[in-house]
Design brief:
Elements (H helix, E strand, L loop, with lengths): L23 E5 L10 E5 L5 E3 L7 E3 L6 E3 L2 H6 L6 H27 L1
Antiparallel strand pairs: 1-2, 2-3, 4-5
The protein binds zinc ion (ZN) (2 copies).
C-alpha cells in the first residue's frame, strides 16, 4: 500500500501586510437618509472598520504619509481622513500661506 496522505493544502489568506495599523476614512454605513447615520472609520486597504466614537486613541496610519499615529478625540469628530500631527502642521502652514497670498493679491488689486 502506497496510499500517500495528501497534506492539507494551506489556505492562503491574502493578508495586507500594511495592516494594522489601519488607514481610516470616515464612512456612513446607513444607506437610508431617514435613518440615523452609523458613522465608522473604515480602513481603505482592508475590510476592517471601527465605530467613530471608539476610534479615539486607536493607532492608525496617516492618510497622507502612511506613518503610524494615534487618532485624537478632536480628529474623530472633525476629520474624515485622520492624518498625523506632522501632516496637520504641514497642511495648516499651506493654508496660512494661501491666505497670505490672498490678502497680498487683494492689496495689489486695491492699489490698481
Ligand atoms: Zn486595514
Ligand atoms: Zn502624516
Amino acid at each position: 500500500m502506497t496510499d500517500e496522505e495528501k497534506p492539507i493544502t494551506e489556505v492562503k489568506i491574502k493578508k495586507n501586510k500594511k495592516c494594522p495599523p489601519h488607514k481610516y476614512k470616515r464612512k456612513n454605513l446607513t444607506r437610508s437618509k431617514s435613518k440615523e447615520p452609523f458613522l465608522v472609520f473604515k480602513c481603505v486597504e482592508c475590510p476592517h472598520y471601527v465605530r467613530t466614537e471608539l476610534a479615539a486613541g486607536l493607532e492608525a496610519r496617516c492618510y497622507k504619509c502612511n506613518k503610524p499615529f494615534n487618532i485624537t478625540v478632536k480628529q474623530v469628530s472633525v476629520t474624515a481622513k485622520p492624518i498625523c500631527e506632522e501632516c496637520i502642521v504641514k497642511s495648516s502652514k499651506t493654508k496660512k500661506l494661501e491666505a497670505e497670498v490672498d490678502t497680498l493679491l487683494d492689496e495689489i488689486l486695491k492699489g490698481l
